[in-house]
Design brief:
two-stranded antiparallel sheet; 15 strands; alpha/beta; Rossmann fold; 13 helices; about 40% helix; seven-stranded parallel beta sheet; about 400 residues
Length: about 400
């Protein structure tokens, strides 16, 4: 079994390794916070959290998906099946962070008597859906909640065999604005050329709603959805500042397709099982995907500074505790916007928060980046995703890297 010192290795915004103990500590923190929130005077009580017994989380190894599993498991005592595609450790090469997160999740679930299963497979494939069906039938049916939190740069379509690659581009015309070059840590201007029609279509194929519907159709065909079952997919809108590269760009076109799918699934589930389908628009958080979007890392660095000053910032775990332990708790009334979306980004999009970010945006330069923004927090959060610079973990100490669940 390889024991080694794991030092972070990155290529630009891509981290190519992970630290198992750091990842484990991240999951432990989420579990500790979920337990504390559940039993706090202002938190939900176990009696209010009856109702979600079995949950399927598609994309459940990192970010909002992992945070959902933690909130559902330690909030409701729910049995969860997580589906994701992660790289296992091999020789001296570490696994991906999502792999180590899942190892820690299973260890803590076993410790606390929670039933959990995980499927490491291409969630876009028919084979993964069939394998998930077998696990659900054997261990945790019927399903009360399906969470769709899949984030992938490409998708091989299960019907056509065509591989689609998503792009992060504006539509119609080039877009120029400030960004942070994460390799040099300099604030600089960037111009992104507009997407072709094929690139738009490919991005919708990867990040739109078709695969979400394939999952729900499969579960309905197999009779695996409980009466009143609900499904939630995660999305992001953001401020007008980022719209040319995000909401009005290729990603936004895919998110509109996701919303169209939500409306179709709402009607389908209401008819078949008396259920619901929602989009949850979440707050901007640091992920490997968000770090790759031009302009967005600089926006988030300023946003975090302003929200922390107001003491209203939330990470993925806090967002999912609010969604499931409060908004989704039995007896609570769902608050939806005019497009039938759950708005967990309400604090980010507060007028005063966005006004302050707008004031800082034209002022920020390479020289004052650390003063005007929380880029230090953004950078630390990015490293934490992969288990590096996690509080209480000595990255200079040799660790076992070949661990399994």
């Amino acid at each position: 079994m390889p024991v080694q010192v794991v030092t972070q290795r990155s290529r630009g915004f891509i981290c190519v390794n992970a630290h198992p103990e750091g990842c484990a500590r991240n999951v432990e923190r989420q579990v500790d916070e979920a337990q504390a929130a559940l039993h706090s005077p202002a938190g939900a009580t176990p009696a209010r959290l009856a109702g979600i017994r079995n949950a399927l989380v598609i994309g459940g190894s990192t970010g909002y998906g992992l945070a959902s599993r933690v909130a559902l498991g330690w909030g409701y005592g729910a049995r969860t099946l997580g589906v994701f595609f992660e790289r296992a450790p091999e020789g001296d090469r570490t696994a991906t962070a999502g792999w180590y997160n899942t190892v820690a999740f299973h260890h803590l679930a076993q410790r606390d008597g929670l039933q959990a299963a995980s499927l490491n497979a291409d969630a876009f494939s028919d084979e993964a859906k069939r394998a998930a069906v077998e696990i659900l039938k054997r261990e945790m049916a019927p399903v009360d909640l399906v969470v769709y939190s899949l984030a992938s740069p490409k998708r091989t379509h299960p019907r056509t065999g065509v591989t689609h690659n998503s792009t992060l581009k504006p539509i119609g015309k080039a877009y120029t604005n400030k960004t942070i070059d994460l390799a040099t840590r300099k604030v600089q201007e960037i111009t992104v050329e507009p997407a072709s029609e094929q690139e738009i279509a490919d991005t919708v194929a990867v990040m739109g709603g078709e695969d979400w519907k394939f999952w729900i159709d499969t579960l309905l065909e197999e009779g695996l959805l409980a009466k009143g079952a609900r499904t939630i997919a995660y999305s992001y809108i953001g401020p007008t500042l980022t719209w040319p590269i995000y909401w009005d760009g290729t990603i936004g076109r895919a998110k509109l397709d996701l919303e169209k799918t939500a409306r179709e699934l709402e009607a389908l589930l209401a008819q078949r099982v008396g259920g619901h389908a929602w989009i949850s628009v979440n707050k901007a958080i640091v992920t490997q995907a968000s770090a790759a979007i031009p302009v967005v890392p600089l926006y988030m660095s300023l946003l975090f500074k302003v929200m922390k000053q107001e003491e209203i910032d939330e990470d993925a775990a806090a967002q999912m505790r609010r969604l499931y332990l409060q908004l989704q708790a039995p007896g609570e009334e769902m608050i939806l916007d005019g497009a039938h979306r759950i708005r967990l980004d309400d604090r980010e999009m507060r007028a005063d928060i966005q006004a302050e970010v707008a004031i800082l945006w034209p002022q920020v330069t390479t020289e004052n980046l650390l003063e005007l923004s929380d880029f230090a927090g953004f950078d630390r959060g990015f490293k934490n995703l992969f288990g590096f610079e996690v509080e209480g973990v000595d990255n200079a100490k040799p660790v076992e890297t070949d661990v399994r669940w």
